[in-house]
């Protein structure tokens, strides 16, 4: 089961490594982590729920919420995808699983060129790249 897809596929990729009974706890943790970004981006509870429940971001606010979360986790600096941040987060989420980390490195390599001057559109670009790359590596994700 996936960890979550909208926060960024890097978190959805992690969902594959958690048990079903941990999903609700993970979602609650994400709601808590999203509180600062919710306030910063002017997002609603519904925006946060969509983020936590794997609803692809469509509105500007939803995209900016994802951007803020990616920045908070070090996956984006608002201009480019951050390979090192993605790998550091992956290391924590994959709990030292070498084969999953190898896949994470390959996914990061596929997305290393992601860049956009619009941080909110960059968030969507990163989501899409990570999703496409994960699927290329045999990881099927909903988003």
UniProtKB/TrEMBL annotation:
GO biological process: sensory perception of smell
Keyword Signal: yes
N-terminal signal peptide: 1-20
Keywords from the UniProt entry: Secreted, Signal
GO MF terms, alphabetically ordered: odorant binding
CDD domains: PBP_GOBP (cd23992)
Any Pfam family matching the protein: PBP_GOBP
Annotated compartments: Secreted
Cellular component GO terms, alphabetical: extracellular space
Secreted keyword on record: yes
PANTHER family, sorted: GENERAL ODORANT-BINDING PROTEIN 19D-RELATED (PTHR11857:SF42), ODORANT BINDING PROTEIN-RELATED (PTHR11857)
Family assignment from sequence similarity: Belongs to the PBP/GOBP family.
The protein's name in its UniProt record: Uncharacterized protein
Organism name: Anopheles sinensis (Mosquito)
């Amino acid at each position: 089961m996936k960890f979550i897809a909208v926060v960024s596929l890097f978190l959805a990729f992690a969902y594959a490594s958690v048990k079903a009974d941990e999903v609700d706890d993970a979602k609650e943790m994400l709601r808590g982590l999203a509180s600062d970004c919710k306030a910063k981006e002017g997002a609603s509870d519904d925006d946060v729920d969509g983020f936590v429940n794997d609803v692809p971001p469509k509105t500007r606010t939803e995209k900016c919420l994802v951007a803020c979360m990616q920045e908070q986790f070090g996956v984006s600096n608002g201009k480019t995808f951050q390979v090192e941040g993605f790998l550091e987060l992956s290391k924590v989420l994959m709990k030292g699983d070498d084969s999953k980390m190898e896949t994470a490195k390959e996914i990061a390599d596929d997305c290393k060129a992601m860049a956009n001057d619009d941080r909110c559109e960059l968030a969507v670009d990163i989501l899409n790249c990570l999703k496409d790359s994960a699927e290329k590596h045999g990881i099927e994700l909903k988003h």
